[in-house]
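1st attempt posting a full record on here, be nice pls
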Amino acid sequence: MAALFDSPKIHPGSDPSIKWRPLQIGDYDRGYLRLLGQLTKAPEVPLSLWEETFQKMRSSGLYFTVVAEDVSTGKIVACATLLAEHKFIRGCGAVGHVEDVVVDKVARGKSLGLKVIEHLKDVARAIGCYKLILDCSQDNVKFYERCGLKVKELQMAVYFPENEGRRPKL
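the predicted structure (as tokens):
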């Protein structure tokens, strides 16, 4: 099964009921998009578009999505993505951006959120990022502080409604 990135960067964890691994192309059928729907509006992505986007992400070498698979059901119950950004500053270093952190409602309270962030921190360290950053709501600040992150500056955004739901020209 094609994985988004090489898996030696992910340790298996101590809970035998959860398998930690990179996102795989077959996770389309394991509830990955449904899980993302608990974070925002559920994405409607046909299989062909999923496969095309997965391959773009994989070939870029910049995407590292870690998932927790419930061994008993085969469903994805937690995930988060690290996106590596090359920089000219810091000796042409790299920054890791955390995106799409979500734990399934039925699997909360098992420290999966903390563990998925730990996995991303390990991956970021392994690929040479000098820092890991993320944007979050005020409601989630305490959780991320428990994960070892600190509040630093401020997030701002501008949205382009005309591009909502449209494929990027990348």
